[in-house]
Design brief:
binds pyridoxal-5'-phosphate; six-stranded mixed beta sheet; 13 helices; globular; alpha/beta
Length: about 350
Amino acid sequence: MTAKDIRARIAKVPRVSLACLPTPLQEAKQLSKVLGGPRIFVKRDDLTGVAFGGNKTRNLEFRLAADKASAADTIVMELDQQSNSARQTVGCCNRLGKGTILILEGSAPENIQGNLLVDHLLGAEVRFASSRSEQKRMSQEAVERERAAGRAPCLLNDIPMFDEGSAIAYLECTCEIVEALEAQSLAPECIYMSSSGKGQAGLVLAQQLLGGFQVRGITATNEFDIPPRGAEIANRAARTLGLDLPVSPALFFNDDSFVGENYGIPSEAGNEAVRLFARTEGIVLDPVYTGKAAAGMIEHIRRGDFNSKDIVVFVHTGGTPAIFTHNHLWLDNHSGNLGGKTL
Ligand SMILES: *Cc1c(COP(=O)(O)O)cnc(C)c1O
């Protein structure tokens, strides 16, 4: 199967256009030089184009095309306070002329920053719930209130297309990577991405269909057993695309050794990766997801997993507003501009 065949199948899935695609694939020559490693390309999914970008904009093209969501004029969501998904959903709903109500777990912080600040700027109605059960109750209440006011609300958490949409979106993203490299007569050896299984399901599908490269997911959370979760999502997405392609959990390489203390808590290795990308390439990662994934890739490069001719691709899944909620991490400037020196 070719990337073109895959695209033809994806074209049959209901979709709304929201992201700027294809995103750029940039070679990171300074980063590669500092690491003394393989050729590194960064897939700039932080540049998907809606409210600071990120991977969720791709899956929202499928999610918001689902019948219930497309018929709605108001989208209600239960999410976390610093959710990248919430920010991108509000931005995308604005583009589609839909209102948004965010029911976020926790209490209003003193200093409103990062994604939460952007949610406000984008005009979402923001409410806080003290617990998961309170969150459920409040979202039901919001749905009923909207209905009583004559609007057509939809609770986005009820639309199962999140997982599958991410898998299909990242199958397409991998096609973009392969096509962009092919245009330079190159091919990837290994693709790295921060994933808790949804996006990686798409990368693994692409690997099975196109062949010839490794996929290494690095997770930012211990919440899931990723190989069975990823395989289940991949198989569902394959069925939607009419592909007879059983994917087994054994096909999922997902490294959980870069989570650090916990989800959402920056780690030393992750912060070093954020600084390194910034100071070698002018690329801003984030300390919650992409920094930790980049730390995994960097460690694998340093231990010698690749030779200098290999092509390694890092998918930048976004999350950049998180640098502002952790501002103290970037004020220590001791390593300065790298100027070609190794760290
Ligand atoms: C949500 C998110 C991820 C994880 O995405 P999966 O769909 O689980 O692959 C990775 N990076 C960022 C920046 C995210 O916001």
